């Protein structure tokens, strides 16, 4: 925790991963680790009450997530007295400002559930990930083809898909044993239960799994933990009674198998329409699964209780700013289609995750290196500033993707950690672009930046201008660029909006998105006009801007640093916040709202 400001982000991520693997292989060390974490959190809370510094909050998120992982995901239960200390400490974190209190609330709620029903949250999570019950999830990893070569694609695909447990029966055995081991503690006869589960036929195993799931899903009501444990003791007794072979009694002390990873499907994202096709296929197959189950059992009550199933698609994007730009386009297209007819979103919850990977810019920069905004991962840098825990776990992960050894589980384990703990979204604003090219109008969107240049002045960016005194006035004007008409609404920290017009002389311009979390106030655009003459290099802040060329000149426009999204012969550009096609409905009227791309992180952001 004291290494938060270290530049060695790779080793910080490795430490978190090593700690997680230690608890997984030796659950008995969990209680000692919880005591250390609670003491550290108590110390941080005291410091925050004495010193009102934002930096004091930075350590809270790692502590909360590590507590959650140790208490909820480890194979051994935490002593009841220690759990009470954890809950007491967590209650005090609820008074922290957002987004810290939101993470604290989630952690408190989870550990309360774990106190009453040990093992139930792990059971619910893996059951959804493996599509074993009504709640179903699927993970789709989309890799940016401009970053992932064919060999790298094959390697990462093998990493992510090889460890999946295709046998549903084996997953059920793992889960039943984990729940019994965690809830019953020393009274769980782990060795005999494991052998008894192996001896069950598919039908008996399914019934045992259903019984354990029912115990975990029942309301708290009267009895609480005692009733839950009694039910699981009865299930264990029935298992062992039906299995008559001799085996040592009591617990052998060995930990249960680790939580199986979710089902992951890896794709090289060549076509933007591929996302909607994957989501449609997932929804249709899940619905078909319900129909087959009903036809087989003749029981229609399940569909009456839960008419779509509860479906969640977790979309993980691996790439750079170009990939996020394409994701914004695909997301907008999906929202437009859903605004006309709800087909997917009434059945399906979609969550986005982002692992920054680039083959162009080195991830680590020295203090004297050029501005990070010049790279292809500017939005990843923004997410890192918002959430340092994202930086140390996911930002550093992207740097190692291309160099991981075949046998390393680090990529899959860290991705699972992100999927299970990264529940707080950061909203990246999406901006619409209208470009006029002759009689045609082209519409598009961007999330990171728009770059425009006058092709005839492109060479001026790379050589200094000669002194204006040495050239006639007409040649001097041409040497500095062309004149464009600009109208925009200026923004400031006071949130005053003033409409302005200007006619700068420039050879190009860059419009960058500045999300609200990066500076006080609301989202805005920073616009920089480039000229060889320093006096024409100006910057403005706005949310809307219109640019028109004159003198029969045209612009070449590139969106989100993506050479595949270049437009030539552009005469005018209009940029404004993109409106969500699915408008909010208030009593008696519709309310337009701005579209944003929600990327899950560990702490999120609330402006």
UniProtKB/TrEMBL annotation:
<dbReference type="GO" id="GO:0005944">
    <property type="term" value="C:phosphatidylinositol 3-kinase complex, class IB"/>
</dbReference>
<protein>
    <submittedName>
        <fullName>Phosphoinositide 3-kinase regulatory subunit 6 isoform X3</fullName>
    </submittedName>
</protein>
<dbReference type="InterPro" id="IPR019522">
    <property type="entry name" value="PIK3R5/6"/>
</dbReference>
<dbReference type="Pfam" id="PF10486">
    <property type="entry name" value="PI3K_1B_p101"/>
</dbReference>
<dbReference type="GO" id="GO:0007186">
    <property type="term" value="P:G protein-coupled receptor signaling pathway"/>
</dbReference>
<dbReference type="GO" id="GO:0046935">
    <property type="term" value="F:1-phosphatidylinositol-3-kinase regulator activity"/>
</dbReference>
